[in-house]
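HUMAN:
Just now I want nothing more than another pair of eyes on a protein record. I would be glad if you read both lines and explained how they fit together. I have put the entry right below:
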Amino acid sequence: MASYNDEKRELLKMKQGLIEESDIIETDVEKAVIEKPTGMAAVENFIYHNKWFILVGLFFTLVVGFLVHQTLTREAADMTVVLVTSDVEKAPNLHLKVKDVELALEKYCPDFDKNGNVHVDVFMIDLSKSNPDPQYVNMNSTKFFGEMQRGISQLFICDKDILGTDEQGNKVDFDSLFRDLGVATGLEEYEGQNFIKLKDTNLIKDAKWENSCPEILGFGIRNMTSDLLGYGDEALERNEQAAQVLKNILTGNIVNDSKEG
């Protein structure tokens, strides 16, 4: 068996290039044979070496499962209403009233999809420019114009400055994009108006909003005749449904009294 000094000399010769191989070192070095674990030991070994990948995979599995569950169990909406303000300081805490507004609107909404259940989905958007986070402002602006383009939401609870300004800094004309509510609902007393203050309707009582409803908020219905985006029959049908619900609100015609506000 080669001594330590012999191995050292052989290694030095190999480093200096005097020899390429050493019989001494080769005969002394035994190749270790690694035995692969089996059974539970193999499982434990796999988990130990891949635990971070497993944890990340479980996390994403849970997230996807949650989103799928939310989608499958979400109530089908008979109507979608946009609750939007251009100044959250003049219309504070709107997010706290979304559920109350939904329940109040459901009292006046027919079962349009004929599934035996009435649900109104209220989608709140804050278009305030005063928010210090520009990403938040841009995100909500994108949401709003996305809703305008989709044509799903035809009934708006909003203020008249939601359309913002054009490139020259002039306010975008609210009147051209919203219907004459007298013509839409068939109620002569509202002809010539495309905006009815929320505080002047029965809805604030149903939504428990009598004492804090913002002055700037009101109802508006999209004017589809002036739209250049080419909406189909479905959007036009939703527009007429929005007019029907608003008429029920203005006349106090409750069609679903079983809903608790």
Summary: Helices lie at 4-16, 23-28, 40-73, 98-106, 134-150, 181-185, 203-206, 233-251. The chain has a mean pLDDT of 81. The chain is about 40% helix and 10% strand.
